[in-house]
Design brief:
Length: 215
């Protein structure tokens, strides 16, 4: 089933960039000074800004004779959604006027149109909407609004209990197979064995070193 939205490569999204920076932080966790943390945060923002500029440049200007420039085009939809996600991650207000002038999706009005509701979702055919909604529902989201679906609590099913059977059951207390003394001795022997193995690996087993071997 072909998706009505062609999503970008994962590392060309704000989530992908966040993953890369987080990996860098975890790999250098022992030497992560406040200065290095600030540098990684700056790198995160710079990467997103650079990607935002590239995505805005890649959005095709609307041409009536070219269907690939329509907001209904899967690639155009993917770019517009990624631009919105990057702007949200960076805390940059979306410039609806500039965006809609370029895409030609809607005439400018006093009320700024919503990119998802008024452009991308509205441009889908009934079949595309059905495919998209079905795919998003499986992930737990409303395909039209993008909000997380509320799951109804499952009703607990009570099965009838046979009281006669319960009365026949006699609790059985399992006896420990080993005494406390035996368990303590086993643990001590295991620890001594680990210490001896470590000593042998570090010092060898021949000569005078054997005299100081743990016993």
């Amino acid at each position: 089933m072909k998706s009505p939205i062609k999503k970008p490569y994962i590392y060309d999204t704000p989530q992908g960039i966040d993953h890369v920076i987080k990996t860098l932080e975890e790999d250098n966790i022992e030497n992560l000074t406040p200065f290095k943390k600030d540098q990684l945060d700056k790198l995160n923002r710079d990467m997103k800004l650079s990607l935002l500029k590239a995505e805005e440049a890649s959005v095709k200007k609307f041409v009536n004779e070219d269907p690939s420039t329509y907001p209904s085009n899967p690639e155009q939809r993917g770019r517009l959604m990624n631009i919105q996600a990057l702007e949200k991650s960076l805390g940059i207000p979306h410039d609806s006027g500039r965006s809609f002038k370029k895409t030609g999706a809607l005439p400018l009005a006093e009320k700024k149109p919503d990119l998802w509701k008024d452009v991308i979702y509205k441009s889908m055919s009934p079949i595309e909407k059905g495919q998209w909604n079905s795919s998003e529902r499986k992930k737990g989201y409303d395909g039209k609004t993008g909000s997380k679906l509320q799951t109804k609590p499952q009703k607990e099913i009570f099965k009838p209990v046979d009281l006669d059977v319960i009365s026949e059951l006699t609790p059985v207390i399992a006896q420990p197979e080993k005494s406390v003394e035996e368990i303590i001795k086993e643990k001590a022997d295991e620890r001594l064995k680990r210490e001896q193995d470590f000593y042998d690996r570090e010092n060898g087993t021949q000569g005078i070193v054997a005299l100081t071997r743990p016993d």
